[in-house]
Prior knowledge:
The protein is of the alpha/beta class.
Amino acid sequence: MSDGRAAKRVAKFIKPLRVEPGSTVDLTEDFDPRYRAGVKKREGVELLRTGVSLLADHQARLAAQDTYGVLLCLQAIDAGGKDGTIRHVMSGVNPQGVRVSGFKVPSAEELDHDYLWRYAQRLPSRGEIGIFNRSHYEEVLVVRVHPENLDRQKLPEEAKGPDVWQRRYREINDWERYLTDNGIKVVKVFLNLSKEEQRLRFLKRIDRPEKNWKFSAADVRERERWDDYQEAFSEMLSATSTPWAPWYVVPADRKWFARICAAAVLAHTLIGIDPQYPSLDGQARKELLAARRGLEAEAPGAKHRTD
C-alpha cells in the first residue's frame, strides 16, 4: 500500500475517535467503550502489524531528520490498558528513539515547583517519541476529584478559587500550543473503559496470582468515585481538544481494538509530519564517494585487481 493510500485509510479509521475542538463531550453518551468499527479480532492482527510497520518506518525518519519530536499522552481510568497499549504499539520501533515516563504521586521537590514543571522535565527531544503514561492531565483529573491534592501543591490562596480548573485548561492549552510551535507535536489518547469491564479486569487481577501485584485496595476506593471521574473526563475532553493537540477517545473494552486505534492515531501524527531522511549537499556527497573509494581500495585483492 502506498503512503498516500495508507494515510487516507488511517485518517478515515480514526476520524470517529477524534474530539472536535470546541465540542461539548458527554463521555457516557458520545463514545461507546465497545465500539470496534466493524473490525473482527482476526482482522485486527494484520491491522496492528500494518500500524506498527508504519510507525517503525516513520520513527526512523523522525530520528534521522532531527527536527520534530512527538509527545503521546495516554490517559485512562484504572485498568484502562495503558501499559499493554504501550507494549504492543511500540513493539516494532527502535527503543533508542522512544522514552516512556510514568507519573505517580509528586515528590517533595516536584511540589516545590509549578504543576507543569515535572512534566516539562520529561518532554521528548527532537527526533524522539515521548510517551506519558498518565500525564499533565492528572492535574485536572485526580487533583480535581481529590481537592486535598490541590492543598499539597502549596499554591497561594488566591490561586485556589472556583476558576482554578478553567484556568488550568487554558494554561495547558497554551503550553501545548507552545510545544507545537517549537516542533513538539502533541497527540492525546484517552482509553475509554466501561465500568463493567473495569470490574472484570479487577477480578482477574485478584484471581490470578501473576496479576496480584497490579491490584491495590485504592483501586476499589477510586472506583467509588466513578461518576466524578466521568464528569472530570468529559469536561477535560471538551476544554482541551484543540486543533494543535486534539484528543482521541479510544474504545478500550476490547484490548486488541484499543491497540489498533492507538497505533493508528500515532501513525496519523507521524504521517502528518512526513519526516524525511536528510539529503546531502554537493560537498558532502563528494566526501561520501571518496570514502567509498577508499574503503573499496582496502578490500582483499584490490591492489592486485587494479594492477
